[in-house]
Specification:
By secondary structure, the protein is mainly α. It has one domain. Helix content is 62%, strand content 0%.
Length: 102
């Protein structure tokens, strides 16, 4: 899948926090795939990703609640060697932050 399609999928995924945790894990994987193309993104593509990221952050608790029912993000990060730069895999941490920080 090309990065423009990945961005489109991610933009759609963040609009639906009430779907299954499995779909949210897939969304996080999509976001990681997008990060592989960061150096190739146009300014417009970067804005689209940033806007979707904002939605993910705003709804972090909803996404995390769904994910934690099927997966332990701490174990997932460890097992998949997720870098800390992939903040979207840290929803369990983000939901603990004061609102002004998130």
């Amino acid at each position: 899948m090309n990065y423009k399609k990945l961005i489109e999928v991610y933009e759609t995924d963040v609009q639906f926090p009430d779907v299954s945790g499995m779909e949210h894990l897939d969304m996080l994987m999509t976001r990681s795939e997008i990060s592989k193309f960061e150096s190739h993104l146009s300014d417009e593509d970067r804005k689209r990703v940033l806007n979707a990221d904002r939605i993910l952050l705003q709804r972090a608790k909803e996404f995390y609640e769904s994910i934690k029912g099927i997966a332990d993000l701490v174990s997932w990060r460890r097992d998949e060697n997720i870098p800390t730069t992939h903040w979207w895999w840290f929803l369990d941490v983000i939901v603990q932050l004061p609102l002004s920080a998130a």
